[in-house]
Every structure is written in structure tokens, then in C-alpha cells.
Design brief:
about 140 residues, 6-stranded mixed β-sheet, globular, alpha+beta, Nuclear Transport Factor 2, Chain: A, Ester cyclase
Length: about 140
Amino acid sequence: MEVNSVENNKKIMRFIVESNDARTFDAYLDLVAEDFVGHTHFVPGDLHGNKSLGEFFYVTEEVAFPDGSHTIHNLYGEDDKVTLELSYLGTFTGPLPDGTPPNGKQIKFHYNIICRFANGKLAELWWFPYDSYSLMKDLGMIQ
């Protein structure tokens, strides 16, 4: 299979999402570049290194939303980029990495992920919630 084949990159992203839902956060470690960078507003600064992605998903999904699951609505790819449109549904029962305490509410939110691949591995990732205000309100981060 071609190293940066769009179809292979899409399969990798589907596998990462499915592995997160199965709570096997290290299953995709070898599919993420060692110098991976992840951009998210859920933690201060960026994520760095291939282990950081699984660790991020562990604390935001296994700890904060242990019953959560994703739905992939659209998955697109071109050249070295893949974009996913997803929704996530889970009950907020554990703290977030920034210290936001759980409120026991079931939360559903939609977001996009833009991914860049290099040498057949996930190299960079950006998260974009559709409605950050509503999500932060549902999480109890703002009144």
C-alpha cells in the first residue's frame, strides 16, 4: 500500500476512533509519528509525541466520559490530509485535564478533526468543536 495513500490514512483515523471507543488507547501507537503534534483547547499547549495522543484520549474519554462513544458522520481525504466530522455522546463523570469537575450530565457535541499524515503515520491533528460555547456550558466550565 502506498505510504501516504488517502484510503490508508482514512483507515488509520477510523481505527484510532474505534480504538478509543474500545478503550484501547495504545492500539494505534505505531500509527502515530514519534514527533506527532496535536492542537486542542482541552489542555494547555499542544500535545507532543506519539504517546501523548493515547494519553490525551485516556484522560478525556476513559476518565471523564467512561461511557462515551463516537459517531463518524463524514470522513474525507485528499493528498496528506484527512478530515473527520464526528459526534460524541457520553456522561461527564470524571474530571477533565484542566481540573473541571464532573457534573454527571450526559453531553453530546459535534466536532471536526483535521489530520496531516507523513510517511504513512499521523503527524499532526487539530480539533474544532462546532459550538464551543454550548460545550463549555454543558461541561460546567462557564455559567
